[in-house]
Amino acid sequence: MKPVVLANVASSVFMAGMIWTIQVVHYPLFEQVGEGTFVAYMAEHQRRISLVILLPWAVEGLSSLALVADPPDGVGRVLPLAGLAAAGVAVLATVGLAVPEHGRLSDGIDLEAIRRLVSTNWVRTAAWSAHAGIALWIAARAARRG
C-alpha cells in the first residue's frame, strides 16, 4: 500500500478523534472556566491545540491532494475527491465558523459565543468523521488491489 494512503488514514482518523474530543468534552467545558481566568485560558488553549493539530492537519491536506493527483490502483478519483471535499469543508468551517467565535472568546467569556461554537462545530465534526471514513474506504480498496 502506498505510504500516502497510510498517511491519509492516520491523519484523518486523528483529526476525527480530536474533533470529537473537542466537541463532546472540551468546548462544552469552556462555560466552566472562571471569568477572571478566561482570557488567559483561551490564549493557552489556542497555543496548545495548535501544537497538537498543525502537523496532522497539514499531513491530511497534503495527502488528500496527493491521492487526488495519483489515486491508488483500483480506487479511482471519486473517493479521493470526496475525501478532499470533506477535508475542505472542515477547513472552511474552521475559518468561517470556529475562528470568529474563538476571536470573540479571546476578549473574554461570552456564553452565547461558546454555545455558537459548540453548535456550529458539528459541521467540522461531521466533515472530519466523513473524511476518516472515506480514508479508511480508500485504504480497504487499495489493500484489496495490493
Describe the structure.
The chain is an all-alpha fold. Helix content is 84%, strand content 0%. The protein has four helices and no strands. The model has no long low-confidence stretch (mean pLDDT 96).
End-to-end Cα distance:
6 Å
Helix content: over 70%
Helix count, per DSSP?
4
- Can you tell me the overall shape? elongated
The mean pLDDT is 96
Strand content: under 5%
Low-confidence stretches: none
Number of strands: 0
Helix/strand order: HHHH
Structural class estimated from helices and strands: mainly alpha
Query: What is the rounded Rg?
Result: 17 Å
Q: Report the biggest beta sheet as strand number plus sense, adding barrel if it closes.
A: none
Concise summary:
By secondary structure, this protein is an all-alpha fold. The protein has four helices and no strands.
Secondary structure elements and their pairing?
Layout: H1 3-29, H2 38-69, H3 78-105, H4 111-145
Helix pairs in contact: 1-2, 1-4, 2-3, 3-4
Give me some keywords for this one.
mainly alpha, 84% helix
